[in-house]
Structure formats: C-alpha cells, structure tokens
Amino acid sequence: MKKLNNAHILSILLLIIGLISSCNDSENEKYIKIPSSVPNLKMPENNLSFKEIEDYKNYKIVATHFRTDKNELRYILANKKAFKAFKNKTEFPEGSKIVKIGWSIKEMPEFSPALVQDSIRRIEYMIKRNDFDKKQGNWGYARFVNEKGTYKSWDEGTQSCVSCHDIAKKTGYVFSEWALNQ
Ligand code: HEC
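That is the input. Now the predicted structure with heme C docked in place:
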C-alpha cells in the first residue's frame, strides 16, 4: 500500500471536519445565505432603520398576496422567530420581524399570459419590541419607498399602519397566514 503523505492526511482530516460540521448544521443553515445590503435610512417618527432587516433575503416566505386596486404583487417574509409563530399559530414573540415587499408587475416577454414581478415599489416591515405601545400589540412599523431606484423613508407617519392593522387585532395585528400550511 502507498504511504500516506502529509497532503493525504490533511485532506482526510478536512473531509472528516467537513462531515462533522455538515451533520451539526441546523435545518436552516443548510441553505445558502444570501448577502444583502440596504441603504442607511431611518424612519423619522420611530427611528426604525432599514438596517434592522438587513438580512431580509434570508427570511422565510410566509405568503404572496396580490392587491387588485394597486396592481401590486406582495411577498410576506418572516425572520426565524416570527416564522415559528406563523407555523405554530402562536403569539408572535419579542424580536419578531415581518417584512412585506411590494412589486409592480409586467407581462413575461416570452409568454405574455404570465404576469411576473417588475420592480420593487416598497419594502416595509413590522417588528415586535416591548418598548412599542402594548395597545398596538408592541409592534413598530417602518416603510421604505423605492422612487426610481432610490429608497426613501416614509414620512407620513405610522398612525395609518397602526389603525389599519388594528382590524387584525384578533390575529396579533397580523393579516397574513402561512400559505403552505395546507
Ligand atoms: C388600509 C390598511 C393598511 C394600512 C394603512 C397598512 N397596512 Fe399593512 N397590511 C394591510 C393588509 C390588508 C395586509 C395583508 C394583505 C397585503 O399583503 O396587502 C397588510 C400586510 C402588512 C405586512 C405583512 C404582515 C401582515 O400583517 O400580514 C406588513 C409588514 C405591513 N402590512 C406593514 C405595514 C406598514 C409598515 C404600514 C404603514 C407604513 C402599513 N402596513 C399600513 C393593511 C394595511
């Protein structure tokens, strides 16, 4: 048999380390992390930043919605804490973050009956933190609007978010349900 040289030993060691670490991966870590960078913006009213959801591309998709009045396609995404609550239909814990992305739509050039996402109109989120008003379910709201490729913080206040989400009080001020729960 050929003698093992240092390179062989090293590669075997690396293989073993690789196998051990892949076994230790939790379910979510098996997926490739998608890097993202968001502009350095803050909401004038409650100081919530866009950076707060910097890793939103790694959140799980909860649902897709379509607003007929706005012709807008929406994705609802949740961080791990919020997703668990969606999945188990339990109360959203502190630190829950739910993101909504709104897209304009266009016909697919190769197959026009298919409507697909065009450009992002806005990214908004709600975050649950004890320092936000308990009467509003401890949720804070933020919206960043995309105007011709540049994001701006929504400057019309978050009272409208709060009032309308009050309709969904029974489900923790959240309208969405996990779409794959069927
Ligand atoms: C007039 C009512 C209304 C207003 C105002 C409103 N929302 Fe919503 N929001 C909804 C509805 C209805 C949905 C679910 C349907 C959809 O996706 O459009 C929703 C969904 C969401 C979601 C996904 C979680 C969920 O509840 O389903 C987020 C995040 C969100 N809104 C953030 C905001 C923010 C931030 C503002 C204010 C800047 C805001 N909303 C203002 C009605 C409203």
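The beta strands are 60-67, 72-78, 97-108, 111-128, 139-147, 150-153.
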